[in-house]
Amino acid sequence: MTQEKGADDASVVGSRGPEVGVAAFLLAIGALVVGDSLRVGIGWADDGPRSGYFPFYIGLMLIGSSGYILVRALLSWRATRTEFATREQIGLVFAVFVPMVAYVALVAGIGIYVASFLLIAYFMRRHGRYGWPPTVAVSVAVPLAFFLVFERWFLVLLPKGPLERAFGL
Amino acid sequence: MEEFGNLLHGFSIALTLPNLLYMLVGIVLGVLIGVLPGLGGANGVAILLPLTFSMNPTSAIIMLSCIYWGALFGGAITSILFNIPGEPWSVATTFDGYPMAQQGRAAQALTAAFTSSFVGAFFAVVLITFLAPVLAKFALKFGPAEFFAVQLLTFCSFVGMSKEPPAKTIAAMMLGFALAAVGMDSVTGQLRMTYGQPELLKGFDFLIAVIGLFGIGEILLTMEEGLAFKGKSARINPKVVWQTWKELGKHWKVFLRSTAIGCWMGITPGGATPASFMGYGMARRFSKDPQSFGKGALEGVVAPETAAHAAGTSALLPMLTLGIPGSPTAAVLLGGLLIWGLQPGPMLFIEQKDFVWGLIASMYLGNLVGLLVVLTTVPWWAALLRIPFSVIAPVIIVICAIGAYTVHSSMFDVAMMLVFGVLGYLFKKLKYPLAPLVLALVLGDMSEASFRQAMLLSQGDLAIFWSNGLVGGIVLLALVMLVSPLWGIARKQLRAREYTQAK
To answer: Does the beta-carbon distance from B171 to A26 stay under 8 Å?
Structure first.
């Protein structure tokens, strides 16, 4: 990692964009909290403080702190030269994140065991460049081991799909 | 003394065969978690927590706390052999540990690290043994106002001691509180911030947050660096251990200093990570030969490891006595207590004697077992790290997904884990601290309850927070911690002004 590279460099993503984005996100959450607290009441009822009594101030402090970060980031927009990550690094992060999202969607659809098999196999083929024999061995063995540990040993049920039903599990 | 009797009783609980077995399993799992990137103490314990719901609480806490000790030990292995800190608190260990390994002194560095970990933890456990009952007895007198004041102190000291910008610490903390408030209000039964979504009725579970923030977030961070593990191998034989131990005796002052720093940082929620850096910094400042630091000084390994373990262990003291965890992992253990139906706090020492003293006795034994396990099995753990990341990463993702699913058997939680993962990655990159978020999420309901009870007592008058010396003192201390960053800023500005004037 080189620190000297500026945010204007095409291969680098500057940190000011994400900084503003996260602060705005927190600000929005703060607004939601304050809004809902006002809805349920921030004052006193006959039996004590209403439900919004405490969260209201939490929301205010969230708005205050994230607003401060946001304003500061916007004011020093031109002067900020710190880097968030290089484009290559962001690419690598997405190379993991996208399969992760697909995996979670698959777990909901076809069960965790088949989805895990696909995830491990994908990673080993795509990123590890393994041949088929080791890929199949590992990606079958790991879900099988989890099956034995969770469903048989600890009696914890995990999501299953058509394949498991075909086996009558 | 009463404590000795209690402790002996505790040993009689911890020394049964099943509990010793759980201890061993916990240590081995813990080292595994500590060695693998993306799995750390906090989320490792969070993932395994659902498996212990059916166990008896004493065995469960023994196993989970041993996972924690194991993770503390495991972090040192990767730092020294691979220059990759497996845990944030072992970053300082890499400064001198890795140079030692490069010089072919890996076995010495590892022995020193493990031994210092053990020493730091041991002193912290002694502290817990004798201080915890006293503190618990004292805390029995606490009313809601005092409890809220202590919680305020916890959160204010995060702002004061954190390396991260205060505004970001506060923002992360408030996000935690806000997430904790989602769902049904336990006092009035009113639904808050659910916006008509049935999934949000039960609120955000901190276990999901921990697995996402630390587990998935860490995987994304690790991937960014495109890790290829290239490490040194090491084999520890008894002769090296003996020689290193003889040499370590000379550094007793470093041990003492780091233990003191660690215990202090653990009880006040500074946590193990700043403690390890402070321990390292202090050792260098007081060393006769500061030049050797960073080039493979034995003290440079001893100091951070002792401090980190002392802090990690003593973080359990406020958790047991006041119900306020000193670190994210302690927060997860606290969540476990609540799930097993135990109310953490001073009453625990009266109502659940077996549990408390069984746990304390298991800390002594667990650390001893841990020391023996890591000293004898180092080559295997090092071999484990040679498995490429392209195999480890998907397996860890699968483990995280299973962990998130088993908390409530809900797919919504698994999806939320991904959201928290992205948040964890962004927060880490933008230097928002994660620990206050997790702690606020765990303590949110409790803080709110004690605040509302205090307000009920005083009919909404904030003056209850300085109505007597005790609560007033704690609140004052909290406010001092809160504004302490201003002192640093003021000094910096003053110096900058002097500098420009001198020009």
So the answer is: yes
